[in-house]
Design brief:
This protein has 285 residues and is of the alpha/beta class. It is 38% helix and 9% strand. It has one domain: TIM Barrel (Alpha-Beta Barrel), CATH 3.20.20.370.
């Protein structure tokens, strides 16, 4: 039986429950990437040391965790760098190599699409009418310009931020078994995207127009073909039942979802997946 390969990534660390999640993965000999928010790490720098000692990989998830589409290029750079220096400095104290993985807050690549990368530009920005972008669009229309103008600005902004990530030494999550067609363009970026969102964040909050979900629904998504995704409609087939590609799975480090986190990992183990150690990906480069 073919075993599906899985790279486990955990956003928004560290929570108050962080060490329990690290211990749980350590007990199962699973190595994931914990993406740290700088302002949270600053209050608990020992969390990073604890993760390293337990064999986990460290990633940068920005300092403030804001939508980068709402920030200027300079503010994006400053936010990335502030977290980078905090994380890399702490790793250096532990005689560890620099941080090599970055993930945008909300998957927002600073391109005014707010992370909805599988939607057209117009669909993406119109889904957030009360944001700064909505105000920009109104201003552009008064000047006789439209969303195509803003899209061009967004494409430029994204390119500049990607180059900044490259200069800092960040790498995409790349693995030979990641064969989804939709993932191939993401290999050119220097941030870490994902293929399958657990949607566990919906236990904590919901976006406008999206109903609050339940743990049962979250677990059921892992057994679905082409499960819905907050980034838009993903070209199928995809998901845990599709054996033609490995997965980069996104879960979160929330206080409220520790038991759900355990159940997700146990469910994946029950499907006989092979957890890929991200440190191996780094060594292979």
């Amino acid at each position: 039986m073919k075993r599906k390969e899985v790279i486990l990534t955990i956003d928004d660390a560290p929570s108050g429950d962080f060490r329990n999640k690290v211990d749980f993965l350590h007990s199962k000999n699973i190595t994931g990437i914990f993406f740290f928010i700088g302002k949270k790490l600053k209050k608990d720098r020992y969390a990073l040391k604890y993760a390293v000692e337990k064999g986990q990989v460290i990633g940068n998830h920005s300092y403030q965790h804001k939508h980068y589409s709402d920030l200027s290029i300079q503010r994006c750079k400053d936010d990335i760098l502030e977290a980078h220096e905090l994380i890399t400095g702490t790793l250096a104290e532990l005689k560890q190599p620099p941080c090599q993985y970055f993930r945008f807050p909300y998957g927002d690549k600073a391109d005014y699409k707010y992370g909805r990368i599988f939607q057209s530009f117009k669909e993406a920005y119109s889904s957030r009418p009360l944001t700064k972008t909505g105000k920009i669009i109104s201003q552009l229309k008064r000047k006789g310009k439209d969303h195509d103008y803003l899209k061009a600005k967004g494409d430029h902004k994204k390119m500049v931020i990607q180059e900044f990530l490259r200069q800092l030494g960040y790498l995409p999550l790349d693995h030979p078994s990641l064969k989804y067609d939709f993932y191939q363009p993401l290999r050119r970026d220097y941030d870490c995207s994902w293929t399958l969102d657990s949607m566990d964040w919906m236990l904590k909050r919901s976006l406008p127009g999206e109903q609050m979900t339940t743990e049962q629904k979250i677990l059921r998504r892992f057994l679905m073909t082409n499960p819905p995704d907050g980034r838009g409609e993903i070209p199928g087939p995809y998901g845990m039942r599709f054996l033609g590609s490995s997965e980069v799975i996104l879960v979160h480090d929330y206080d409220e979802t520790h038991l759900t986190f355990q159940k997700i990992v146990n469910l994946l183990e029950g499907q006989h997946v092979k957890f890929v150690n991200p440190q191996v990906l780094t060594r292979d480069r």
